[in-house]
From TrEMBL:
InterPro entries: FlaG (IPR005186), FlaG-like_sf (IPR035924). This is Flagellar biosynthesis protein FlaG. It holds the Pfam family FlaG. Keywords: Cell projection, Cilium, Flagellum. The keyword Repressor does not apply. The keyword Hydrolase does not apply.
Length: 94
């Protein structure tokens, strides 16, 4: 999914189909993010590849430094490693 309505417009220009519902969802998320951002902070959202979990970062506008990350990407990476390890153990026992 696109990060913003500008990204959605770029995807449409590249020939990627975005449904009306997805477009409305993107616009609603954009409005919510703008309402939550303060004078010193901004939000960044992305999808963790392996778990498909949405990660929200709160960043300092001036420095770009991460103030908070929910859930922490390192935690999701650890979950992936645990899942891989559990899969290896099951494969070895069978």
């Amino acid at each position: 999914m696109a990060k913003s309505s500008k990204d959605a417009r770029n995807l449409e220009l590249q020939g990627v189909h975005i449904s009306v519902g997805e477009g409305q969802l993107i616009k609603a998320i954009d409005r919510a993010i703008k309402a939550l951002e303060g004078p010193d902070t901004m939000f960044e959202m992305k999808v963790h590849k392996e778990t498909n979990a949405i990660i929200v970062k709160v960043l300092n506008k001036e420095t770009g430094e991460t103030i908070r990350e929910i859930p922490p990407e390192k935690t999701l990476d650890l979950v992936v490693k645990m899942m891989e390890f559990a899969g290896i153990l099951i494969d070895e026992k069978v």
